[in-house]
Specification:
The protein is an alpha+beta fold. Helix content is 38%, strand content 20%. A hairpin with a 6-residue loop joins β2 and β3. α2 crosses α3. The two termini are 13 Å apart.
Length: 151
């Protein structure tokens, strides 16, 4: 069970995962050892699942960000597992969701350019035997970056 101090700690770490136990203690009015123990408990209990650096896609040469809706022609465990394996092997696909509604999957992709997006769509995704059609949208501008979860 999370208390108010735990949620403040989680909020602080989502904004800056580099905070030391000393800095967390100052923010939370705890000793550094208490703050460190709370952080460790939240990691052990699975509230904190990892730490990662946020990279600038444009500096990495990833000029095109898009979303791809995938509609399967056949539905079944074998087709879903095969499609999931294909998604997992493609570094351009940075996240994927199964969806309710018209599309079966929504893929978030980053590509070097439009040609690379075209290749991903026409040489990788569409040829998959379970895929019936795709619909892609290219991001023009991102109004809000992936934000911290509400705590």
């Amino acid at each position: 069970m999370l208390d108010a101090t735990d949620t403040r700690l989680l909020s602080a770490l989502q904004k800056n995962a580099h905070l030391t136990a000393h800095q967390l203690g100052e923010l939370l009015n705890l000793s550094p050892s208490q703050a460190g123990r709370r952080r460790q408990r939240l990691e052990t209990e699975g509230y904190i699942t990892g730490y990662a650096a946020r990279l600038d896609p444009l500096k990495l040469g990833l000029q095109v960000q898009g979303f791809v809706q995938v509609h399967l022609g056949t539905h079944g465990p074998d087709q879903s597992a095969s499609f999931a394996r294909m998604v997992d092997t493609q570094p351009e696909i940075t996240s994927a969701w199964t969806m309710t509604g018209e599309a079966d999957y929504l893929l978030h992709v980053y590509c070097d350019d439009l040609s690379a997006l075209n290749s991903l769509l026409h040489e990788v995704i569409l040829p998959h035997p379970a895929v019936a059609r795709v619909q892609s949208q290219i991001v023009m501008d991102q109004l809000k970056r992936d934000a911290p979860l509400p705590t």
